[in-house]
Design brief:
- 9% of the residues lie in helices and 45% in strands.
- It has 174 residues and is mainly β.
- It is elongated.
Length: 174
């Protein structure tokens, strides 16, 4: 698992077609793969690796520790190694975006509706415990109505106003 500076964990890293990668990034990715993470090169693999300058770039060394899908598409080979999503809607919608943070005592999801239309969905999120909805504009907090818990997931209705946002907080403590 790779953790970024804000505490997000990654089990899979997808790299789109790229011509050159820094040697330090190759070392990090290789270490990540050897520790059980998945590195996927989608499309063309990097042709060159640079150490300090492009003038001294070398041809790409052995990348057999990574998965390569030359099609650049989400094929079955790629889908097989992707982790289960941490948030899923009953109907896909590109208007709703989210950010997820894992905390010691729970999960925090910040959802925002990028459209000027009301969005109503059923959302399933990873988390153990009681779900709450925090209104990002008013600060009001209430228990998620009709939330169903089980197997480390919470399923609940979601209503977002046009251009609206909310937090979903799931944890053992209300």
């Amino acid at each position: 698992v790779l953790e970024n500076k804000s505490g997000q964990d990654y089990k899979t890293i997808i790299i789109p077609t790229v011509s050159v990668l820094p040697q330090k990034d190759i070392r990090i990715l290789k270490t990540f793969a050897k520790a059980g993470g998945h590195v996927i090169f989608m499309g063309q693999k990097p042709l060159m690796v640079e150490d300090r300058t492009f003038r001294n770039a070398d041809k790409t060394s052995n990348l057999r520790w990574a998965i390569h899908d030359p099609s650049g598409k989400l094929t079955a080979k790629v889908m097989d190694v992707l982790p289960n999503p941490d948030l899923k809607f009953d109907k896909p919608d590109t208007a709703i975006e989210y950010v997820h943070r894992h905390l010691k005592n729970g999960e925090v999801y910040f959802l925002f509706n990028r459209s000027d239309k009301k969005q109503e969905r059923t959302v399933t999120v990873k988390g153990l415990g009681q779900a709450q909805v925090w209104n990002a504009n008013t600060g009001q907090i209430h228990l998620a109505g009709k939330a169903q818990e089980g197997h480390g997931l919470v399923r609940m209705p979601l209503k977002l106003k046009p251009n609206g946002s909310e937090f979903i907080v799931v944890g053992s403590e209300p």
